[in-house]
């Protein structure tokens, strides 16, 4: 049996969850004030995912970096691969909010999109 403390990040209440995993009884969650906390804890234990937000270099723009994010959450295990790929690229200005910066990053099936406008000077 394993006992895992975690904080639910689904709302500002930030409930302290205790997650017990037992081979026979499965997963038991306590400390949540609503069902979203249970769903969050189960996902964190079985298949954790995150949205990545970072910046990418811009060539010929009025600013040198553009903020970007993954369009959907990706597996936590792929975060480092994604960050390496994003560090190595640069995009030409102009860049518009919603432009696809990379398709299928790190073979996750998820695109990375711009979240800021970058104009040519
Ligand atoms: S368990 Fe419910 S109330 Fe508590 S932080 Fe998560 S979403 Fe908010």
Number of helices: 2
CATH architecture of the largest domain: Roll
CATH topology of the largest domain: CPE0013-like fold
User: Could you tell me the radius of gyration in angstroms?
Assistant: 19 Å
**pLDDT averaged over residues:** 95
Query: Could you describe the largest sheet, including whether it forms a barrel?
Result: 5 strands, mixed
Name of the level-1 CATH class of the largest domain: Alpha Beta
Shape: elongated
Q: Which class of secondary structure composition applies to the elements?
A: alpha+beta
CATH homologous superfamily caption of the largest domain: CPE0013-like
Which molecules other than protein and nucleic acid are bound?
A: iron/sulfur cluster
Secondary-structure element string:
EEEHEEEEHEEE
Beta-strand portion reads 35-45%
Measured distance between first and last alpha carbons: 60 Å
Provide the spatial order of strands within the biggest beta sheet: 8-5-6-10-9
Number of separate structural domains: 2
Beta strands, count: 10
Question: Could you describe the 3D structure shown?
Answer:
This protein is of the alpha+beta class and 121 residues long. It has two domains: 2-47, no CATH class; 53-114, CPE0013-like fold (Roll), CATH 3.10.530.10. It contains two helices and ten strands; from the N terminus they run βββαββββαβββ. The protein has helices at 35-46, 79-87, and strands at residues 2-7, 16-22, 26-30, 49-50, 53-59, 65-70, 74-75, 90-92, 100-102, 112-114. The strands form three sheets. Strands 8-5-6-10-9 form a five-stranded mixed sheet. The chain has a three-stranded antiparallel sheet with strand order 1-2-3, with helices on one face. Strands 4-7 form a two-stranded antiparallel ribbon. A hairpin with a 5-residue loop joins strand 5 and strand 6. The longest helix is centred in the middle third of the chain and has 12 residues, at 35-46. Residues 8, 10-11, 13-15, 32-34, 36-37 line the site of iron/sulfur cluster.
